[in-house]
Amino acid sequence: MAHLLSTSFSVKISSSNRPCGQPLNQARTALPSSFTIKTSKSSFKRLVSKGDRTRKSCVVLATAAPVSKEVTANPRSGSDESRSDSSKPQRVMVIGGDGYCGWATALHLSNKGYEVAIVDSLVRRLFDHQLGLDSLTPISSIHNRLRCWKAITGKTIELYIGDICDFEFLSETFNSFEPDAVVHFGEQRSAPYSMIDRSRAVFTQKNNVIGTLNVLFAIKEFREECHLVKLGTMGEYGTPNIDIEEGYITITHNGRTDTLPYPKQASSFYHLSKVHDSNNIAFTCKAWGIRATDLNQGVVYGVKTDETSMHEQLCNRLDYDGVFGTALNRFCVQAAVGHPLTVYGKGGQTRGYLDIRDTVQCVELAIANPAKPGEFRVFNQFTEQFSVNELAALVTKAGKKLGLDVQTISVPNPRVEAEEHYYNAKHTKLIELGLKPHLLSDSLLDSLLNFAIEFKDRVDTKQIMPSVSWKKIGVKPQTVPAN
Ligand SMILES: NC(=O)c1ccc[n+]([C@@H]2O[C@H](COP(=O)([O-])OP(=O)(O)OC[C@H]3O[C@@H](n4cnc5c(N)ncnc54)[C@H](O)[C@@H]3O)[C@@H](O)[C@H]2O)c1
């Protein structure tokens, strides 16, 4: 247990921060001025292998000590307001819980009475530093976020900072937290990032594929009943000229019929890492009896959930740049700062989309209705389909109502993809489990645009145009230019 026997140090909380005990519209609560976090003896780990010259200096703090255990008397106590069935999982490990989807999900599950632990290497914050990017919204450190959540709700979320590619670290988190379900968001998730250069392509596939393999081995070794809820992407399927099914398709060939995994046609090294993950998970379900749900998620938009709206220190990140920003979020920020909406090529690219409030709902539904042992279950997690041109038209219309003059330009497509194509993807399984979708509405667009306007002074307009080309991907390490 070397990782758990470690040195500790204090972090002072800036007095300029609004105390979290004083949530929006609530009374003030006294806060400690410092708290203790633990670091591993082998405190710093290289992020990528020695051969990766560009990133030799990158380090990630690795620890298996649950930070928040220091500030709570009984981290395993806690109420379950929403679930009455005691056979359902109680303890949920959220890998990647400091990221966009993971943060919102960790808070949502904690609010619903699950015991939650966040596992995160904080590498996403490092990418921002390396590329000179920033979230539209100011985001607090993970430590302040969790202190704030505790102060407002009285609920503890445990925190394990480390890289899941480090199996020793992951083993210790499993043995320490003993999860009933693992929600795995913890991957490098940008297609453009994976297409910057060779080292980023290699990093993406190592980080994602080995991280997921380690999670599978940890479940097999330490928690064989644990349900894996893995975030995949609709991008794994590509854009076939037939309907996209949920994971499997029944085919009759030369008079014989079988139900087979739906064909995958990924279109970046990132999307390919997700396909490799899916194959590894499917194999271990068969071979070891792992129970798993692969959530092929569409493009997520929005920023607020019930929980992240409770206090400014709980605010989620919102990416608008050409590397990490996703279509609708990017368009809203572009409209807010008077930048023309950047449609890539012809703009007929059609994808599934969902509100971040539905991401958290879908994950909760998957956890509450676990896959059976040995089952590899696939859900297509989105609520509506839009083409890029349709999104641009919706944002233009909503912008007009707010007095914004929204223009659209077509920019050369940096990706290799069909710009006009058939697209019809099934997405009924989560609805059958009880998903109540938040469909894209005028009011949501209004609120997202207003949010973007509120923070528009933080926008670095140099980061808006796409700067990574699928065709010009380099062998040599590249710095993404601040155009
Ligand atoms: N955001 C979307 O629109 C979208 C769409 C489809 C699928 N997804 C999937 O959902 C998941 C979460 O996406 P997101 O937008 O929240 O991404 P994000 O980058 O905001 O969050 C990912 C988090 O995982 C952490 N992480 C990465 N590698 C890790 C490792 N090896 N060990 C520990 N932590 C690690 C990062 O530090 C980060 O906090 C990803 O797997 C992504 O592929 C996202």
From TrEMBL:
Family statement: Belongs to the NAD(P)-dependent epimerase/dehydratase family.
Region spans: Disordered: 70-90
Domain annotation NAD-dependent epimerase/dehydratase: ranges: 92-380
Pfam families, per the entry: Epimerase
Protein name: NAD-dependent epimerase/dehydratase domain-containing protein
Organism domain of life: Eukaryota
Residue stretches of biased makeup (Basic and acidic residues): 78-88
InterPro entries in the cross-refs: Epimerase_deHydtase (IPR001509), NAD(P)-bd_dom_sf (IPR036291)
